[in-house]
Amino acid sequence: MTFTGPSADERRRWRELVGDPAAHDEIASGLACLTQTDVEPTVDPVVASGWLRLAVWNIERGRDPEAIAALIASSGADAALLSEVDLGMARTRNRDVARELGRELRMGSVYAIEYVELSLGKEADLVGITETENDVGLHGNAVLGRMPLLRPGVVRLDRGGRWFNEVLGEPRVGGQIVVLSTIELDGSAVELASVHLESHSDASDRAAQFTAALDAIDARSTGPAVIAGDLNTFGAEIGELADRTTLRRLLETEPGRFSWPATHEALFDVAAARGYDWIDCNVAAPTTRHAPDGSPHHIPIKLDWILVRGLEARRPTVVPALGPDGTTLSDHELLAVSVRLPQ
Protein backbone atom coordinates (compact mmCIF):
# COMPACT_ATOMS: atom_id res chain seq x y z
CA MET A 1 0.00 0.00 0.00
CA THR A 2 0.96 3.65 -0.33
CA PHE A 3 0.01 6.13 2.36
CA THR A 4 -2.89 8.45 1.74
CA GLY A 5 -1.76 11.58 3.51
CA PRO A 6 -3.83 14.64 4.31
CA SER A 7 -4.44 17.11 1.50
CA ALA A 8 -2.57 20.38 1.13
CA ASP A 9 -5.76 22.23 2.14
CA GLU A 10 -6.04 20.16 5.34
CA ARG A 11 -2.44 20.84 6.22
CA ARG A 12 -2.90 24.56 5.66
CA ARG A 13 -5.95 24.57 7.95
CA TRP A 14 -4.07 22.66 10.64
CA ARG A 15 -1.20 25.15 10.44
CA GLU A 16 -3.64 27.83 11.63
CA LEU A 17 -4.36 25.74 14.76
CA VAL A 18 -0.78 25.15 15.92
CA GLY A 19 -0.27 25.86 19.59
CA ASP A 20 -3.57 24.25 20.62
CA PRO A 21 -2.87 20.81 22.19
CA ALA A 22 -6.54 19.81 22.02
CA ALA A 23 -6.59 20.56 18.29
CA HIS A 24 -3.49 18.42 17.80
CA ASP A 25 -5.03 15.45 19.62
CA GLU A 26 -8.23 15.70 17.60
CA ILE A 27 -6.32 15.89 14.31
CA ALA A 28 -3.98 13.03 15.20
CA SER A 29 -6.79 10.74 16.37
CA GLY A 30 -8.35 10.90 12.91
CA LEU A 31 -5.20 10.27 10.89
CA ALA A 32 -5.00 6.66 9.70
CA CYS A 33 -1.51 7.22 8.30
CA LEU A 34 -0.14 7.56 11.85
CA THR A 35 -1.06 3.95 12.64
CA GLN A 36 -0.24 2.25 9.34
CA THR A 37 2.86 0.71 7.82
CA ASP A 38 3.80 0.92 4.15
CA VAL A 39 5.34 -2.41 3.11
CA GLU A 40 7.33 -3.10 -0.04
CA PRO A 41 8.07 -6.83 -0.46
CA THR A 42 11.66 -7.99 -0.65
CA VAL A 43 12.90 -8.64 -4.18
CA ASP A 44 14.66 -12.02 -4.56
CA PRO A 45 14.66 -12.62 -0.78
CA VAL A 46 17.63 -14.37 0.78
CA VAL A 47 17.73 -16.88 3.63
CA ALA A 48 19.60 -15.20 6.49
CA SER A 49 22.23 -17.37 8.13
CA GLY A 50 25.34 -16.90 10.25
CA TRP A 51 26.57 -13.36 10.73
CA LEU A 52 24.05 -10.69 9.73
CA ARG A 53 25.40 -7.22 8.94
CA LEU A 54 23.18 -4.34 10.08
CA ALA A 55 23.34 -0.66 9.14
CA VAL A 56 21.76 1.97 11.38
CA TRP A 57 21.44 5.55 10.20
CA ASN A 58 19.57 8.79 10.73
CA ILE A 59 19.62 9.89 7.08
CA GLU A 60 18.43 13.47 7.81
CA ARG A 61 15.47 13.45 5.41
CA GLY A 62 17.18 11.43 2.65
CA ARG A 63 18.15 14.15 0.19
CA ASP A 64 20.22 11.89 -2.08
CA PRO A 65 18.76 8.35 -2.06
CA GLU A 66 21.22 7.01 -4.62
CA ALA A 67 24.30 8.11 -2.65
CA ILE A 68 22.69 7.04 0.64
CA ALA A 69 21.97 3.58 -0.79
CA ALA A 70 25.54 3.32 -2.07
CA LEU A 71 26.96 4.05 1.39
CA ILE A 72 24.62 1.52 3.02
CA ALA A 73 25.68 -1.05 0.42
CA SER A 74 29.36 -0.30 1.05
CA SER A 75 28.86 -1.21 4.71
CA GLY A 76 27.90 -4.74 3.61
CA ALA A 77 24.46 -4.40 5.19
CA ASP A 78 21.93 -7.21 4.91
CA ALA A 79 19.37 -5.01 6.69
CA ALA A 80 19.11 -1.33 7.59
CA LEU A 81 17.28 0.52 10.37
CA LEU A 82 16.70 4.11 9.32
CA SER A 83 15.22 7.27 10.80
CA GLU A 84 14.29 10.72 9.44
CA VAL A 85 12.98 9.31 6.15
CA ASP A 86 10.84 11.62 4.00
CA LEU A 87 7.82 10.85 1.84
CA GLY A 88 6.40 13.56 -0.41
CA MET A 89 8.40 16.44 1.08
CA ALA A 90 9.52 19.38 -1.07
CA ARG A 91 12.93 19.41 0.67
CA THR A 92 13.62 15.92 -0.74
CA ARG A 93 11.98 16.71 -4.10
CA ASN A 94 8.75 14.96 -3.10
CA ARG A 95 10.38 11.54 -3.42
CA ASP A 96 9.37 8.32 -1.66
CA VAL A 97 12.74 7.86 0.01
CA ALA A 98 12.14 4.49 1.70
CA ARG A 99 10.92 2.81 -1.48
CA GLU A 100 13.71 4.35 -3.56
CA LEU A 101 16.32 3.11 -1.11
CA GLY A 102 14.73 -0.34 -1.18
CA ARG A 103 14.88 -0.43 -4.98
CA GLU A 104 18.50 0.74 -5.07
CA LEU A 105 19.52 -1.85 -2.46
CA ARG A 106 17.21 -4.63 -3.72
CA MET A 107 15.70 -4.76 -0.24
CA GLY A 108 12.16 -4.80 0.99
CA SER A 109 10.99 -2.04 3.29
CA VAL A 110 8.64 -1.35 6.19
CA TYR A 111 7.96 2.36 6.61
CA ALA A 112 5.85 4.24 9.16
CA ILE A 113 5.06 7.87 9.89
CA GLU A 114 6.31 9.94 12.80
CA TYR A 115 4.97 13.26 11.59
CA VAL A 116 2.72 15.02 9.15
CA GLU A 117 4.77 18.11 8.37
CA LEU A 118 2.89 21.43 8.20
CA SER A 119 5.79 23.41 6.72
CA LEU A 120 8.41 22.84 4.05
CA GLY A 121 11.05 22.41 6.75
CA LYS A 122 14.00 24.44 7.92
CA GLU A 123 15.43 27.08 5.60
CA ALA A 124 18.68 25.13 5.32
CA ASP A 125 16.74 22.12 3.99
CA LEU A 126 15.47 24.11 1.01
CA VAL A 127 18.72 25.37 -0.48
CA GLY A 128 18.69 24.48 -4.18
CA ILE A 129 15.14 23.10 -4.01
CA THR A 130 12.66 24.27 -6.67
CA GLU A 131 9.58 22.46 -5.33
CA THR A 132 7.25 24.86 -3.56
CA GLU A 133 4.75 22.48 -1.90
CA ASN A 134 4.81 19.15 -0.10
CA ASP A 135 2.92 16.43 -1.98
CA VAL A 136 1.89 14.60 1.19
CA GLY A 137 4.26 15.99 3.82
CA LEU A 138 5.18 12.78 5.69
CA HIS A 139 8.29 11.89 7.68
CA GLY A 140 9.17 8.68 9.53
CA ASN A 141 11.33 5.61 10.17
CA ALA A 142 12.02 2.46 8.16
CA VAL A 143 13.34 -1.09 8.33
CA LEU A 144 14.91 -2.44 5.12
CA GLY A 145 16.14 -5.97 4.48
CA ARG A 146 17.29 -8.47 1.88
CA MET A 147 15.33 -11.18 3.68
CA PRO A 148 11.52 -11.33 4.08
CA LEU A 149 10.28 -8.67 6.51
CA LEU A 150 7.54 -10.31 8.53
CA ARG A 151 4.85 -8.94 10.88
CA PRO A 152 5.39 -5.24 10.09
CA GLY A 153 4.21 -2.88 12.80
CA VAL A 154 4.44 0.59 14.28
CA VAL A 155 3.98 1.72 17.89
CA ARG A 156 3.76 5.34 18.99
CA LEU A 157 5.96 6.13 21.98
CA ASP A 158 3.86 8.89 23.52
CA ARG A 159 0.85 11.06 22.75
CA GLY A 160 2.95 13.36 20.57
CA GLY A 161 2.10 16.97 19.90
CA ARG A 162 5.18 18.68 21.31
CA TRP A 163 6.07 19.95 17.79
CA PHE A 164 2.56 21.31 17.17
CA ASN A 165 3.73 24.91 17.55
CA GLU A 166 5.82 27.57 15.83
CA VAL A 167 8.41 27.73 18.64
CA LEU A 168 10.57 24.86 17.34
CA GLY A 169 10.37 26.07 13.74
CA GLU A 170 8.88 22.94 12.17
CA PRO A 171 5.17 22.62 13.09
CA ARG A 172 4.06 18.99 12.89
CA VAL A 173 1.29 16.56 13.78
CA GLY A 174 2.43 13.35 15.47
CA GLY A 175 5.29 12.14 17.63
CA GLN A 176 8.07 9.58 17.98
CA ILE A 177 7.62 5.94 16.93
CA VAL A 178 9.27 2.55 16.77
CA VAL A 179 8.97 0.59 13.50
CA LEU A 180 9.02 -3.19 13.91
CA SER A 181 9.58 -6.21 11.73
CA THR A 182 10.49 -9.85 12.32
CA ILE A 183 13.14 -11.67 10.30
CA GLU A 184 14.30 -15.26 10.38
CA LEU A 185 17.97 -15.91 11.11
CA ASP A 186 19.02 -19.56 10.91
CA GLY A 187 15.37 -20.45 11.33
CA SER A 188 14.88 -18.38 14.50
CA ALA A 189 12.74 -15.27 14.76
CA VAL A 190 14.66 -12.04 15.42
CA GLU A 191 12.88 -8.75 16.05
CA LEU A 192 14.22 -5.62 14.34
CA ALA A 193 13.14 -2.26 15.77
CA SER A 194 14.03 1.12 14.28
CA VAL A 195 13.56 3.84 16.89
CA HIS A 196 14.00 7.59 17.05
CA LEU A 197 13.66 9.28 20.45
CA GLU A 198 12.60 12.89 20.98
CA SER A 199 15.34 15.50 20.73
CA HIS A 200 13.59 18.17 22.81
CA SER A 201 13.61 16.04 25.93
CA ASP A 202 15.60 15.03 28.98
CA ALA A 203 17.06 11.73 30.17
CA SER A 204 13.92 10.66 32.04
CA ASP A 205 11.72 11.41 29.03
CA ARG A 206 14.02 9.44 26.75
CA ALA A 207 13.97 6.53 29.19
CA ALA A 208 10.16 6.56 29.19
CA GLN A 209 10.03 6.52 25.39
CA PHE A 210 12.64 3.76 25.25
CA THR A 211 10.65 1.73 27.76
CA ALA A 212 7.61 2.01 25.49
CA ALA A 213 9.72 0.80 22.56
CA LEU A 214 10.99 -2.22 24.52
CA ASP A 215 7.42 -2.97 25.62
CA ALA A 216 6.45 -3.03 21.95
CA ILE A 217 9.15 -5.59 21.21
CA ASP A 218 8.20 -7.76 24.21
CA ALA A 219 4.57 -7.73 23.08
CA ARG A 220 5.77 -9.54 19.96
CA SER A 221 8.54 -11.72 21.40
CA THR A 222 10.90 -12.06 24.36
CA GLY A 223 13.49 -13.71 22.13
CA PRO A 224 16.42 -12.30 20.11
CA ALA A 225 16.01 -8.65 19.19
CA VAL A 226 17.82 -5.61 17.84
CA ILE A 227 16.71 -2.08 18.70
CA ALA A 228 18.69 0.73 17.15
CA GLY A 229 18.52 4.29 15.97
CA ASP A 230 18.92 7.91 16.98
CA LEU A 231 18.35 7.88 20.75
CA ASN A 232 19.33 11.55 21.17
CA THR A 233 21.52 10.66 24.16
CA PHE A 234 22.89 14.11 24.92
CA GLY A 235 24.48 13.00 28.19
CA ALA A 236 23.50 16.32 29.78
CA GLU A 237 20.63 18.76 29.90
CA ILE A 238 20.16 20.79 26.71
CA GLY A 239 20.72 23.99 28.66
CA GLU A 240 24.08 22.68 29.87
CA LEU A 241 25.18 21.96 26.30
CA ALA A 242 24.29 25.50 25.28
CA ASP A 243 26.31 27.06 28.10
CA ARG A 244 30.00 27.05 27.14
CA THR A 245 31.24 27.46 30.70
CA THR A 246 29.20 24.51 31.95
CA LEU A 247 30.16 22.45 28.90
CA ARG A 248 33.85 23.10 29.46
CA ARG A 249 33.51 22.05 33.09
CA LEU A 250 31.74 18.82 32.11
CA LEU A 251 34.47 17.95 29.61
CA GLU A 252 37.26 18.75 32.06
CA THR A 253 35.66 16.46 34.64
CA GLU A 254 34.95 13.67 32.16
CA PRO A 255 36.70 14.06 28.75
CA GLY A 256 34.91 11.07 27.19
CA ARG A 257 31.46 12.06 28.40
CA PHE A 258 29.96 12.80 24.99
CA SER A 259 31.72 9.99 23.12
CA TRP A 260 30.04 7.46 25.44
CA PRO A 261 27.21 9.15 27.39
CA ALA A 262 25.62 5.88 28.51
CA THR A 263 26.34 6.43 32.20
CA HIS A 264 24.34 9.66 32.09
CA GLU A 265 21.28 8.22 30.31
CA ALA A 266 18.67 6.29 32.30
CA LEU A 267 17.49 4.41 29.22
CA PHE A 268 20.55 2.17 29.46
CA ASP A 269 19.50 1.06 32.95
CA VAL A 270 16.14 0.16 31.43
CA ALA A 271 17.87 -1.73 28.62
CA ALA A 272 20.12 -3.68 31.00
CA ALA A 273 17.14 -4.73 33.12
CA ARG A 274 15.53 -6.13 29.96
CA GLY A 275 18.60 -8.14 28.98
CA TYR A 276 19.98 -5.86 26.25
CA ASP A 277 23.69 -5.32 25.60
CA TRP A 278 25.33 -2.38 23.85
CA ILE A 279 29.01 -2.78 24.75
CA ASP A 280 29.94 -5.07 21.84
CA CYS A 281 27.63 -3.28 19.38
CA ASN A 282 29.01 0.24 19.47
CA VAL A 283 32.17 2.29 19.10
CA ALA A 284 32.92 4.92 21.74
CA ALA A 285 32.87 7.83 19.29
CA PRO A 286 30.56 10.70 18.34
CA THR A 287 27.99 9.94 15.65
CA THR A 288 27.07 13.51 14.73
CA ARG A 289 28.69 15.27 11.80
CA HIS A 290 29.81 18.89 11.56
CA ALA A 291 28.31 21.28 9.03
CA PRO A 292 29.46 20.78 5.40
CA ASP A 293 31.71 23.85 5.61
CA GLY A 294 33.60 22.26 8.49
CA SER A 295 32.55 24.79 11.09
CA PRO A 296 31.61 23.35 14.50
CA HIS A 297 27.93 24.25 14.65
CA HIS A 298 27.32 21.57 17.25
CA ILE A 299 29.07 19.48 19.89
CA PRO A 300 30.08 16.04 18.57
CA ILE A 301 28.05 13.54 20.63
CA LYS A 302 27.21 9.87 20.35
CA LEU A 303 23.46 10.04 19.71
CA ASP A 304 23.05 6.81 17.72
CA TRP A 305 23.17 3.31 19.20
CA ILE A 306 22.65 -0.38 18.51
CA LEU A 307 21.42 -2.66 21.31
CA VAL A 308 20.88 -6.42 21.09
CA ARG A 309 19.23 -9.14 23.16
CA GLY A 310 19.97 -12.83 22.70
CA LEU A 311 22.55 -12.19 19.97
CA GLU A 312 26.31 -12.04 19.67
CA ALA A 313 27.81 -8.91 18.14
CA ARG A 314 31.14 -8.04 16.56
CA ARG A 315 32.83 -5.52 14.23
CA PRO A 316 30.98 -2.35 15.22
CA THR A 317 32.01 0.64 13.15
CA VAL A 318 31.14 4.25 12.47
CA VAL A 319 31.08 5.12 8.77
CA PRO A 320 31.47 8.79 7.76
CA ALA A 321 28.26 10.07 6.15
CA LEU A 322 29.97 11.19 2.97
CA GLY A 323 29.16 10.59 -0.68
CA PRO A 324 31.80 9.55 -3.23
CA ASP A 325 32.48 13.22 -4.02
CA GLY A 326 32.83 14.16 -0.36
CA THR A 327 29.33 15.59 -0.08
CA THR A 328 27.79 15.36 3.40
CA LEU A 329 24.78 13.02 3.17
CA SER A 330 23.47 13.50 6.72
CA ASP A 331 24.27 15.21 10.01
CA HIS A 332 24.61 11.71 11.52
CA GLU A 333 27.20 9.07 10.69
CA LEU A 334 26.19 5.55 9.65
CA LEU A 335 26.65 2.75 12.21
CA ALA A 336 27.20 -0.90 11.29
CA VAL A 337 27.58 -4.12 13.28
CA SER A 338 27.44 -7.86 12.65
CA VAL A 339 25.18 -10.07 14.77
CA ARG A 340 24.42 -13.79 14.98
CA LEU A 341 22.60 -16.24 17.20
CA PRO A 342 24.72 -17.49 20.12
CA GLN A 343 26.88 -20.45 19.17
Question: What does the model show?
Answer:
The protein has one domain (8-340): Endonuclease/exonuclease/phosphatase (Deoxyribonuclease I, Chain A). Helices cover 22% and strands 28% of the residues. The chain has helices at 8-15, 21-29, 65-74, 97-105, 203-218, 238-242, 244-253, 267-273, and strands at 37-40, 52-61, 79-87, 108-117, 138-145, 150-156, 172-174, 177-185, 188-196, 225-230, 304-309, 312-319, 334-340. Strands 1, 2, 3, 4, 5, 7, 12 and 13 form an eight-stranded mixed beta sheet that branches. The N and C termini lie far apart (39 Å).
Q: What does the secondary structure layout of this molecule look like, with pairings?
A:
Blueprint: H1 8-15, H2 21-29, E1 37-40, E2 52-61, H3 65-74, E3 79-87, H4 97-105, E4 108-117, E5 138-145, E6 150-156, E7 172-174, E8 177-185, E9 188-196, H5 203-218, E10 225-230, H6 238-242, H7 244-253, H8 267-273, E11 304-309, E12 312-319, E13 334-340
Parallel strand pairs: 2-3, 9-10
Antiparallel strand pairs: 1-4, 2-13, 3-5, 4-5, 4-7, 6-8, 8-9, 10-11, 12-13
Helix pairs in contact: 3-4, 5-8
